[in-house]
Amino acid sequence: MEPMNFTSANEDCNCYSYDARKLKDSKNVHKGHVSAVMDIDYSPTGREFVTGSYDRTIRIFPYNGGHNREIYHTKRMQRVFCVKFTCDATYVVSGSDDTNLRLWKANASEQLGVIVQRERKKHEYNEALKKKHQHFPEIKRIHRHRHLPKAIFKEVKLRHTISNTAMKKENRRRAHSAPGSMPKQSLRRSRIIKQVE
C-alpha cells in the first residue's frame, strides 16, 4: 500500500521498519522474538506482517506496533524458515526445519465457514464489549496474554534481565563521566551501520 515503507528482519531478534526516503533511523522497532528472524511477509492489506524465527514461533505484528498481536507455536515445529500470507489474508502458511508446511488462521479466534445470523450478532456484541471496556487493567491483561513454551518464556526473562543490567551499567557510566562525552543513541538509530547508494 505504501511502497516507500519496508520492514527488514534482523538476527538480533528484532524487525525494523524504514521509510526509504529517510534512512537515518527506523520508523519502528518490532520486538518479541528471542532468536534470529528468518522471514517476513506483509498481508495483502498492508496493515500487518508475519514473521518466522529460529525460536520456533510465528508472530503477527501490526505494521505500526512494537509488539506482536498473535503468536503461533507447536511442540513439534522446529526453526521456521519461511512464512507467507494467503491472498485473502485469512491464513498464514509456514515452512519449518522439520520439512512440514503448516496452515494457521490469521485471526486465531475467528470462526470460519458458514455463520448464522444469531452467531454473527453474538460475535459483534462480544467485540463491542471488548472495545468498550478495553481500558480496564484486567481486560488489558487478558487481551495481551499469550501462552508461550517454557523454553521461550525462560529466554524472554533472561533477555529482560540482560537488557536491564546493560541499561543500568550504561546509566552509571554516564553519571560518572564528563557531561556530553557519552551521547545517548536510540535502538532505532544504532542498528544502521552505513548507507550505500
From TrEMBL:
Disordered, as annotated region: 167-197
WD repeat intervals: 30-61, 73-114
Domain of life: Eukaryota
Keyword annotations from UniProtKB, A to Z: Nucleus, Repeat, Ribonucleoprotein, WD repeat
Ranges of compositional bias, category Basic residues: 186-197
SUPFAM superfamilies registered for this protein in UniProt: WD40 repeat-like (SSF50978)
Sof1-like protein domain ranges (all copies): 106-191
Location(s), subcellular: Nucleus, Nucleolus
GO cellular component, one term: small-subunit processome
Biological process, per Gene Ontology: maturation of SSU-rRNA from tricistronic rRNA transcript (SSU-rRNA, 5.8S rRNA, LSU-rRNA)
Gene3D superfamilies reported in the protein's UniProt record: YVTN repeat-like/Quinoprotein amine dehydrogenase
Family classification: Belongs to the WD repeat DCAF13/WDSOF1 family.
Name recorded for this polypeptide: Sof1-like protein domain-containing protein
Origin organism lineage: Eukaryota, Viridiplantae, Streptophyta, Embryophyta, Tracheophyta
